[in-house]
TrEMBL record:
Protein name: Uncharacterized protein
Source domain of life: Bacteria
Annotated keywords: Membrane, Transmembrane, Transmembrane helix
TM regions (residue ranges): 6-32, 44-66, 78-97, 137-155, 186-205, 212-232
Amino acid sequence: MDPTGLLDAVLAVAAYPGAAFLALAAVAHRWLGGQGLAPRSGRIPAAGLVPALSAVVATAMLPLPGSPALRLPPPNGAAGNAVAIIVLLAVAVDLGAGSRRAAMLTGAAAVPVLGLAASVETLSVLSISAAGAPGDLGARCLVAAILLLASTLTAGGRAASVVAASLALAGASLVIPAALPGAPAAASAAACLGAVALSGVLARLRDRWTVAALTAAGGVASLAGTALALLATHP
């Protein structure tokens, strides 16, 4: 194995945008959501480790500027697979979010992403997040909005906070890098943390949204995003 590739993989999973970065985002989400910096229980239950690990690996594959994962394998790199990220997030949400509403919205967000993959004819998340057609941009914004909303609806445990932060970061990765072209990696990372912070603030309002309203909003956004993705014209 290439030692540089191994180091890049370790950094992506353990530091940025993986475990360390996700932990910071999860703490910010809990604090701004009014849940305190940590729950009272001292240990994370063993069942909570699986969704947390799934969220960490999915986050490590996101196309965030400066991510070592984008250099794997060296020297040119190969971006993460959209289907792999969707599956990992689905596992994380199903086992750790503690919310059917969050699971429903996450599933709704996956459909336009697959539509984008079909539109640009690749499963590379880097290519999907960089597709420049107006329809693609609109679809990515709708997916980001759905994931941001889903991230506000998780339960209150530590595993749920990690899952919520991962969903918010996944949504941000579809919009922020393209919105800040050429910006330093630190600036994009800070902007993504800003999306997590917004999710935490909005989480305070989650009890005001009915299941019917969320179902309607998620369904409409998913259908609209899928249509925009499939109808987008590429040069």
